[in-house]
Write a structure and sequence with these properties.
heterodimer; A: 525 residues; alpha+beta; five-stranded antiparallel β-sheet; 12 strands; disordered N terminus; B: 379 residues; mainly alpha; Hydantoin permease; 70% helix; disordered C terminus
């Protein structure tokens, strides 16, 4: 049978938070039970009911109910075949006392069976994709796990691409996602805690961590914060993220998300707790520090020297994308003396016919670019080339020729835009974009003094941020020397001997054994 | 809680603070660096024999709590209050330095009040976060600033500006001018200012008090050596010109030229100084707010508002930058600051040593903190 290897989904523990419908129990009459089950679910056309009659047990009747489309069709048919085969056979001097026991113990060849005595619970199980078997005269119904139906295949992640590394990505199916993790970390210490959030969507959530490596307080805190969520529906992990982050108002992401199983597993191995939400390929990782957003999973697959170089490029890009327009505004408006004379003359010549101050000019271009970017994301694919022609030629070149914008400003804005795409985490890129506008206003009004004031506020803000109790600027403030091995530089794997302390549990921090540095033969042969 | 490392970082940056703006010990001319060095040593004596000893006797309390405990409610309140005023006044001086120099060097058309308001706001934002946030901030800033200082010195040296012959001859006019320049001015500014840390030490996480002593003194000595070296750089690059330049090190930086491309990096150097001044003024702002919070038993966030307003309004008192510098160097350093940095702490220490009964009687009691203020602490 195809469903034998499914892990336990704890239906019984997951009572819906706001049960509005009155609790109904099953009664011995099959027809009334079926009718009630139908009524409970509103009697849609996708609710399938198949009634069977057994030749033994006084020709007892029983019925299978399931919702079409969310069950595993092949598995269901196989099971039905077995049931029919059994129903048509007359059993001499029945071994089992009742049809119910006969079915559960001898006939249904399914790995996971459950038992309920209430209509409500039976219906919720059907909504999860299970099949309900109701037997005439029995006060209980059998839940057969037939979860399945169509879901997207495991494909290459579209948002976090790498040159070298696994090409698998998470899907919308929670079970597929947990299996992807299980396949990478085959440790018996890997834990999956399940929850259900959303009174209407009843979305399954999995909390994944390695016992003994993730910090116990963090796991407890994740549970506590998830349990506190009270909402009608959860459609994406973003819903969860906004409920459980440590501070409500901040431009910086306080939880990491990834579409890549290998990145999620790397996080688990470093002591992070993963929160998977059914219906989205993006899983959340917590706790997280600022520097984590500049790490790409490829850093660990490429050689360490190139990885270090790329990481410094990314950090630089973050600051460029945040600061470059404001520095340009500040220097051209307030501190022209800082520029070399020849550059100053050339800039002044370009700006000669420009009617706007540098701040307004920069704002015009930045907003134009943001509109272009948003259009690029939303528009139908076919219109793409048209927009790029309009964007590049009309808004760029023509605006310069028309004397509305200076060419230098176009360069600054384009470079800023490109730099903002270098940051591997999209949500951190967005933070840089938002902060950029604030800094531009400060630069336009107070020059470098304004930029510095803005940066000080930003630093004070970031020093106050925490992600699940862990300081956001961790390896720097508070300074943790041993964690610096994976921040600006990525040391070779044989030198990465410990997990990041203060993130992972203190008891188990050793990662790799000592003395593994490859060394050439002593004779040099 | 604050780590020892954060505390040491804050000691360093706090002492460097606005010291980089002035040629300390200017009266000793070429031998100014010796005055600074004497100031460092004298300050060290003060720090280790008075300031740290006070904290050692009451490791779990801050200055205000100590006053209240040893001097009783009324006299303790009075002493606590004058320290709030003292910290505010120091902060006002730094705000004014920051604002006046910003206008002088970078923002010639911006009104003074606006610049001061911004400075108070960015200081207040950090103070509102509580000691944990401020100390983490300093820990983050220190390596960046030190790195920039090192680059600046390398540029000064590579531009051929530094000529150590300008330091010669040593002790041309004897030792007296050197000593006169150091005592009490250089103790008062910046080294005696360590008295502010009586507000902060109690937040530091430590196993034994000797760790605090060690780290504080290490930070202090590092800052002392740094300031002495800075003084050497100033004199050896500007010579006697250093004495009448507004911001000597900045003056030196204007002569830097890198490959004829970057010729005027002084706005960037000004930002470097300002960041250090910002740290110093925020430390005072935080100290004053904490003191007021403990004095009145209110939360830090609430105390920061009147203190911030007081600092902002008080900053208008000085008529000009020159007035501010003059009041500071001619009067405050000689007559006023030593009272707060040496006299009162010394009296306090003596009282503490005499009234052992108060200490032993209360040692098993938990010191009382305003609870709302505790919520601002870092874990």
């Amino acid at each position: 049978m195809p469903n034998d290897d499914k892990t336990t989904k704890q239906y019984e523990n997951e009572a819906p938070k706001k049960e509005t419908k009155p609790e109904q129990v099953l009664i011995p009459d099959l027809d009334i039970n079926i009718e009630r089950l139908h009524r409970f679910l509103g009697g849609g056309a996708d609710i399938v009911c198949r009634t069977l009659q057994h030749r033994s047990f006084d020709n007892a009747r029983y019925a299978l109910l399931y919702i079409d489309g969310i069950v595993d069709g092949i598995g269901l048919n196989t099971m039905l075949l077995g049931l029919l085969d059994d129903a048509n056979r007359y059993i001499e001097g029945g071994v089992e006392s009742s049809l119910y026991h006969h079915l559960t113990e001898r006939v249904i060849a399914n790995g996971k069976l459950g038992e309920v005595n209430s209509i409500n619970k039976a219906c919720y199980a059907m909504l999860e994709g299970s099949t309900i078997l109701v037997v005439d005269g029995s006060l209980r119904a059998i839940i057969i796990d037939t979860t399945g139906g169509k879901s997207r295949a495991v494909e290459e992640p579209s948002s976090q691409t790498v040159v070298r590394g696994p090409k698998e990505g998470f899907t919308e199916n929670l079970r597929t996602n947990t299996s992807l993790i299980r396949r990478i970390i085959k440790s018996p210490d890997l834990r999956f805690d399940y929850k259900m959030i959303g009174h209407q969507t009843r979305t399954n959530i999995a909390i994944v961590y390695l016992e003994g490596i993730a910090e116990v307080e963090v796991i407890k805190e994740v549970h506590r914060r998830l349990d506190a969520i009270d909402i009608d529906g959860v459609l994406e992990s973003g819903y969860i993220e906004e409920f459980i982050q440590d501070r409500a108002f901040t431009p910086f992401p306080l939880l990491q998300n990834t579409e890549r199983p290998d990145a999620a597993c790397a996080g688990i191995l470093e002591g992070q707790v993963i929160i998977m939400v059914s219906g989205t390929p993006f899983v959340l990782q917590a706790p997280v520090t600022f520097v984590k957003f500049f790490q790409s999973s490829e850093d660990y697959y490429q050689r360490y020297d190139i990885a270090t170089f790329l990481r410094i490029i990314r950090m630089t890009s973050f600051f460029i994308s945040m600061l470059l327009p404001s520095l340009y505004i500040a220097i051209t408006t307030f501190h022209q003396e800082m520029l070399p004379t020849s550059l100053l003359i050339s800039l002044a010549a370009q700006r000669e016919g420009i009617p706007f101050p540098a701040l307004l000019e920069a704002f015009l271009m930045e907003i134009t670019f943001e509109i272009l970017r948003e259009a690029g994301v939303r528009m139908p694919r076919i219109i793409g080339p048209a927009i790029s022609i309009v964007g590049a030629l009309v808004l760029g070149q023509a605006a310069v020729q028309a004397g509305i914008i200076s060419a230098a400003m176009v360069i600054v804005v384009s470079f800023t835009a490109i730099a903002s795409f270098v940051i591997p985490a999209v949500n951190m890129g967005v933070a840089a974009r938002l902060i950029r506008f604030l800094l531009m206003i400060l630069a336009g009004t107070f020059g470098l003094f304004g930029i510095m004031s803005g940066l000080m506020i930003l630093l004070a803000h970031m020093c106050g941020l925490r992600s699940f109790g862990k300081p956001y600027l961790m390896p720097f403030a508070p300074f943790v020397a041993s964690n610096l091995k994976d921040v600006l530089i990525r040391v070779p794997w044989w030198a990465m001997r410990t997990r990041p302390t203060n993130i992972a549990s203190d008891k188990n921090i050793t990662r790799a054994g000592a003395g593994q540095k490859p060394s050439p033969d002593q004779e040099g042969v | 809680m604050v780590t020892l490392r954060q505390m040491a970082s804050t000691v360093i940056l706090f002492l460097i603070g606005s010291s980089s703006l002035f040629a300390l010990g200017g009266k000793a001319e070429k031998d100014a660096w010796m005055s600074v060095f004497i100031g460092v040593l004298a300050g060290l004596v003060l720090l280790s024999l008075v300031t740290l000893q006070i904290q050692k006797l009451e490791p779990g309390r801050n200055l205000i709590e100590i006053y209240k405990l040893y001097f009783g409610k009324i006299i303790g309140f009075a002493f606590g209050f004058i320290y709030v005023v003292y910290y505010c006044y120091k902060c006002i001086r730094n705000v004014r330095e920051f604002a006046d120099l910003s206008i002088m060097l970078m923002l010639s058309d911006t009104p003074l009040s606006v610049v001061m308001l911004i400075i108070c706001l960015i200081g207040g934002y950090a103070v509102m976060g509580g000691p944990g946030v401020f100390f983490r901030m300093v820990e983050m800033l220190l390596p960046i600033l030190l790195l920039i200082y090192v680059v600046l010195y390398i540029l000064l040296i590579s531009s051929g500006l530094i000529d150590f012959n300008r330091l010669l001859p040593f002790l041309e006019k004897g030792f007296k001018p050197v000593w006169d320049a150091a005592i009490p001015e250089i103790i008062s500014f910046p080294f005696g200012e360590m008295v502010l840390f009586l507000m902060f030490w109690r937040y530091v996480e430590f196993k034994q008090f000797s760790q605090i002593m060690k780290m504080t003194i290490m930070g202090y000595l590092f800052a002392g050596m740094f300031i002495t070296f800075m003084n050497v750089v100033i004199i050896s690059s500007l010579g006697s010109f250093a004495g009448w330049s507004t911001v000597p090190l900045l003056q030196a930086a204007t002569y830097i030229s890198i490959g004829n491309v970057f010729e005027r990096i002084d706005p960037l150097v000004a930002l470097l100084f300002f960041t250090a001044v910002y740290v110093k003024l925020t430390a005072y702002y935080l100290g004053a707010s904490l003191a007021l919070a403990y004095l009145l038993g209110i939360s830090l966030r609430i105390a920061a508002i009147p203190v911030g307003l007081g600092i902002f309004i008080g900053s208008f008192w000085f008529k000009s930058y020159m007035h501010q510098v003059n009041v500071g160097f001619e009067q405050n350093l000689k007559y006023h600051f030593p009272i707060f940095q040496m006299l009162i702490p010394a009296v306090l220490l003596i009282v503490m040593l005499l009234r052992k009964g108060v200490r032993s009687g209360s040692s098993h009691k938990q010191p009382s903190h305003p609870t709302s203020e505790e919520s601002n602490h870092a874990k």
